[in-house]
């Protein structure tokens, strides 16, 4: 029957913590081999998504402008029809007043045609400008898509190389975490998250915590070796374990994670 986390000794807690650190450090190594690739892939996907939204915006604006051109062409057509109608009516007027009234209507429709033709030119110029911008955007997206596919393949290959080991280690990390009481596990995770190298549990090298130049007093080194209390390094804030425990657990963990 498995011991409850409250029932295990300090030494067992230290071993469980070190084992968890060993597994998590190996996971860090695997994930670090991917470098900045995951971030690069995510950034490229975000950039492409933003550019595609701009493409959609330009395409909608072009459709609107084309709709305006069609509308103005229809207006010109209607104006020409009216001009023909008014000219025909001029042949049957009874006096100069009626003729002049029709002449004004013809002039008005001529102005409508001129204004519509001017607007059509403006709309077409805008359409051409937007099409140029749209083509440039599509070229940029195509270029980024190629770059993204290359980066994704590179990332997928790296993931595939270590996927089985990573899945195994994640499972083991969860198993070892269950052996540690919640408060101690929370402290471990807090220290680990605050560490630049992800280390929360370290051994002692030449009288100092691994990676530190601050020497540990002899009395404290004795306390660490006795494994009767959790000792925190006052400078780095890391949990300290003795060399013998490190050697023993390293040998054991190397066997567990053999691939």
From TrEMBL:
Gene3D superfamilies: 1.10.287.1490. The keyword Coiled coil applies. Residues 20-194 form the CT398-like coiled coil hairpin domain. It comes from the Bacteria. This is CT398-like coiled coil hairpin domain-containing protein. The keyword rRNA-binding does not apply. InterPro entries: CT398_CC_hairpin, Oxidative_Scav/Glycosyltrans. The lineage of its organism: Bacteria, Pseudomonadati, Bacteroidota, Flavobacteriia, Flavobacteriales. Keywords: Coiled coil. Residues 41-172 form a coiled coil. Pfam families: CT398_CC.
